TrEMBL record:
Pfam family, one: Hexapep
Protein name, entry field: Transferase hexapeptide repeat family protein
Keyword Transferase: yes
InterPro entries hit by this protein: Hexapep, Transf_Hexapept/Carb_Anhydrase
GO molecular function: transferase activity
Organism ancestry: Bacteria, Pseudomonadati, Bacteroidota, Flavobacteriia, Flavobacteriales
Organism: Mesonia aestuariivivens
Keywords from the UniProt entry: Transferase
Length: 198
């Protein structure tokens, strides 16, 4: 669902995909090849939210802020299932782990990885290529080339997903039996697993 609010109508590039069960409201700009999953809420009612090209905001995420703020999720930012971004800016090609909370005025640097369920306090500044975990979150080491290559490969899958959704996602009635000619899915996991084997 796309909602106007006080004259602000979201701008969504035609190559991006916003799931019908997501809500995008008001002063929101979504760039190219972005994926917004079901249950996500991107609420630009009190301020501006910009998603640069190739960003994904997965299922049940929230992106919001205090009044008068403007935030940017930079190119290739990857926001995992259930995460909350509240008034924070995300750097290029960073990964925000599932169910993490990133608070107001926090700055997550380029190519950072924030672990699942981390809590990043308000106004925290995380320098680029940091691996961040815990509650409260702290930097435990630098992100290696191998780690960022694995992250980038995963994000590329999400950057392909919008075109796949435009082409093939349809509301249907469920089948009542498993068909004999049920199609096989592509094995994306092996693609990502190659990085673990190096």
């Amino acid at each position: 669902m796309i909602y106007s609010f006080k004259g602000h109508i979201p701008v969504v590039h035609k190559s991006s995909f916003v799931h019908p069960l997501a809500a995008v409201t008001g002063n929101v700009i979504i760039g190219k090849d972005c994926y917004i999953g079901p249950g996500a809420a991107i609420r630009g009612d009190w301020g501006e939210i910009i998603l640069e090209d190739g960003v994904n905001v997965q299922e049940n995420c929230t992106v919001h802020m205090f009044p008068g703020k403007s935030i940017v999720l930079k190119k290739g930012a990857h926001v995992g299932h259930g995460a909350i971004i509240h008034g924070a800016n995300l750097g290029e090609n960073c990964l925000i782990g599932m169910n993490s909370v990133i608070m107001d005025d926090a700055e997550i640097g380029d190519e950072c990885i924030v672990g699942a369920m981390a809590f990043v306090k308000a106004a925290t500044k995380i320098s680029k290529r940091s691996l961040v975990v815990g509650n409260p979150a702290k930097v435990i080491k630098q992100v290696s080339d191998e780690m960022i290559a694995w992250k980038t490969a995963g994000t590329k899958l999400y950057q392909r997903l919008p075109s796949d959704c435009h082409e093939s996602l349809r509301a249907v009635e469920p089948l009542r039996e498993i068909p004999k000619d049920r199609p096989q899915q592509e094995n994306f996991y092996n693609t990502l697993n190659e990085f673990r084997e190096k």
